[in-house]
Amino acid sequence: MTAGKERGDPRAVHKISTPPILKIYGFQCALVLLASAILFPLDKVMAYSSVIGGMISVVPNAYFARQVFRYAGAAFAREVARSFYRGESGKFVLTLALFAATFALVQPLQVFVLFMTYLSVMLLNAVILARYALPGNRI
């Protein structure tokens, strides 16, 4: 028995498992890089626009997930709520900042490819997390 369980530490006894955040977002980054590598021989602007769009999706979502899963358990209800709100507001601000920086600093840019990759990675994120939520389907 661990020292945390002996003292009744609420962090040691919670039953909700944290999703494999690093694995999920690492997989998404790998797919974005693969798509970019496929596009590179066709058009270099499309390739880096794809990478930028994918990273604009992955980075804020990874920040949000990191914030949300910092605390767990009923004893940390206040911290869980705070970290959720902090993560959501940080995700929003980070997404806006990344889009603004991209449009201000990156020229030339394939805007259609940027947005399509952004939306594709957002959809991929939803599919992966929905699959993770199914009983018995752990990543």
Automatic annotation (TrEMBL):
Cellular location(s): Cell membrane
Membrane topology category: Multi-pass membrane protein
Superkingdom of the source species: Bacteria
InterPro entries: ATP_synth_I (IPR005598)
Pfam families for the chain: ATP-synt_I (PF03899)
Annotated signal peptide: none
Transmembrane segments annotated in the record for this chain: 21-40, 46-64, 92-109, 115-134
UniProt keyword terms in alphabetical order: Cell membrane, Membrane, Transmembrane, Transmembrane helix
Name of the protein this chain belongs to: ATP synthase subunit I
